[in-house]
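Quick one, tokens below:
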């Protein structure tokens, strides 16, 4: 395979990753809306869609690493690889794809931070709601003989009038 084809394959791989990360970003925005509405069914669907996209991204990343390795650039950054592109068009395509991919990842990271914060708040709200619904447990009271009293009304009142001296 000629280097030209490998550089184009690498650029196409970056484009594929960009497309999938943009899809993840859109799902993340939908997740924010679903969290706002507290729509559990929609959150479940979004999570399933995210899982599918993450599988594709994992395959694309493996492909990218294989391409970079076969080109002799193992362990190098895109900035280090770009000068080896044989034509201006290759460099421009790869650079554009890499810059857009970096921007998409930053947006995704920021949006994910917001989503995580909202999810944490929703979980806290749900816990507080469930605690409010749960009946307050009655305190356990013991009689003087060590047995458990059924309720406060059975608790003996200790006064001098009803105690033996």
């Amino acid at each position: 395979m000629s280097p030209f084809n490998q550089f184009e394959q690498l650029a196409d791989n970056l484009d594929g990753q960009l497309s999938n990360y943009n899809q993840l970003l859109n799902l993340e925005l939908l997740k924010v809306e679903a969290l706002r509405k507290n729509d559990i069914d929609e959150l479940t669907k979004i999570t399933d869609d995210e899982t599918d996209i993450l599988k594709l991204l994992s395959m694309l990343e493996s492909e990218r690493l294989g391409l970079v390795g076969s080109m002799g650039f193992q362990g190098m950054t895109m900035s280090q690889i770009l000068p080896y592109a044989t034509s201006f068009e290759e460099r421009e395509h790869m650079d554009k794809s890499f810059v857009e991919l970096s921007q998409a990842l930053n947006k995704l990271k920021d949006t994910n931070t917001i989503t995580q914060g909202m999810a944490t708040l929703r979980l806290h709200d749900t816990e507080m709601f469930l605690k409010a619904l749960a009946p307050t447990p009655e305190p356990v009271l013991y009689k003087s003989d060590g047995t458990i009293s059924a309720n406060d009304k059975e608790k003996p009142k200790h006064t001098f009038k009803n105690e033996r001296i």
